[in-house]
């Protein structure tokens, strides 16, 4: 028998690295420079020998081969200087100069020699020569646009002494087709002073709650605007030579709507009704109907003071919006009971036309009244309910008629009436009446809700009645004329005829009053008596020469004032009708007798003479 003694033996051995050369081109001058890129590191091989088997060798750590780079490029360069160009660039900031838009670069010619590298020894061989030329880059120097001048102009739309600038267009001063334009500075050359005129406030009532306020027309304050306009110096913009004008804008009255309707509610307490129930144990109670509080609504309408907006002159109307419901409690009695309960009325709406303007006004025509139901419960039987008092339904009238009117003014005719008293004016024989057009809109009324619908419109027109005003005949004027045939200072009237001053065929004629304008005064010139002696007895008397009185008539003629009839401007004319003669008497008695006879004779002659003279 063999006994095994063999063991597994493991041994290691180094693995030396190799060296390889690679090209490492460097464009600087010279070639052949070497640089270790990867240092070499030895590896390791492990050999394992198991009993009865061949040894097995494997690489447990691979070696890292050394890599050396070799500069295999040689470069030589030469330069060519660049040129400089100056040009205009509209995209540069205004006023820019000497802006380098393109940096000049010298041209370069590069000659490159490239060698092959032996990977085992690093030796250079087989040179290949190449030439690369970069041409020079011209340097470009630019200048930007040049700004124009600055000119000031007046602009009343700008705030006073403030400016706005309309920039000029910079350009190329060397290009006649693109020269710079001026910058315009507009200067506010007006001042505005506004003095406000406060607006008034007018209040109007609307059918809204009293806490309702709405501005129907927004008030606007008026104003008085004072505008002062200045001249503007075109070179400096300075303001001078002010001219002032005024303009007034009247205020607009603010109209404020004020609610005129105030609605308040009040509660109506319900009653508690106890009903005996024979089906309940005596002394027990059962609520069979909960009490409901009623409610009334009071609508108060006011007028609005247009100046202060205060609510005035209230009028109120109260309606029931919720009828109370009494609380019903059953009380157990175990005997026959009789109870009553209210029967609530219904509300019915019907038309209640009112010809005034507006619709929808509600009026209680028939107040609602509760009915009474009586319930009899006999022990052991069903309760029997009968209506003992029928309810009266509430009837509310709804104004379903809206009426609007417009008027047409009457004409006035003025005409002549020859039958009126002379001098009558403004006699109204037919009273004028304006025409009236009445438009009536009638709505249907919903009997359940009171809502208005289905309007039917009708129109009636009463034409206007012309007013006729008459005037009577017009009297002519009064003219005074002289008339020598009328006794002095007395008048005779020739009545004029009244007529129509607007009718050339029936014009009034003047009343002529003839005035006696001649006054005659007859003056007697008594004769003288001469006594002469004769050779006769002393009782002898004889009229030797008959005496005769003289007569002088003075006539005074007046002009007559044609408007007043007054006598004016008298002219006297004197005429001697009879020369007086002296008579001779012998006796005193005879003389007296003759004088008495002369007086009687003159009394007879005088009227005759006056008549002759006239």
Describe the overall structure.
The protein has 614 residues and is mainly β. Among the domains are: 11-142, no CATH class; 271-296 and 319-402, Single Sheet (Resuscitation-promoting factor rpfb fold), CATH 2.20.230; 521-613, Resuscitation-promoting factor rpfb (Resuscitation-promoting factor rpfb fold), CATH 2.20.230.10. The chain is built from 1 helix and 46 strands. Mean pLDDT is 86; it is low at 587-614.
Feature tags:
614 residues, mainly beta, Resuscitation-promoting factor rpfb fold, 5-stranded mixed beta sheet, 3-stranded antiparallel beta sheet, 52% strand, disordered C terminus
Question: How is the topology of this model organized?
Answer:
Blueprint: E1 9-15, E2 19-23, E3 34-38, E4 43-49, E5 56-61, E6 66-70, E7 73-80, E8 84-88, E9 99-102, E10 107-117, E11 124-134, E12 139-143, E13 150-154, E14 163-166, E15 183-187, E16 190-197, E17 201-209, E18 213-217, E19 222-232, E20 239-249, E21 254-268, E22 272-277, E23 285-289, E24 294-304, E25 311-322, E26 327-332, E27 337-343, E28 347-351, E29 362-366, E30 371-377, E31 384-389, E32 394-398, E33 401-408, E34 412-416, E35 427-430, E36 435-445, E37 452-462, E38 467-471, E39 478-482, E40 491-494, E41 511-515, E42 518-525, E43 529-531, E44 550-560, E45 567-578, E46 583-585, H1 588-613
Parallel strand pairs: 2-6, 8-12, 13-15, 17-21, 22-26, 28-32, 34-38, 39-41, 43-46
Antiparallel strand pairs: 1-4, 3-6, 4-5, 7-10, 9-12, 10-11, 14-15, 16-19, 18-21, 19-20, 21-24, 23-26, 24-25, 27-30, 29-32, 30-31, 33-36, 35-38, 36-37, 40-41, 42-44, 44-45
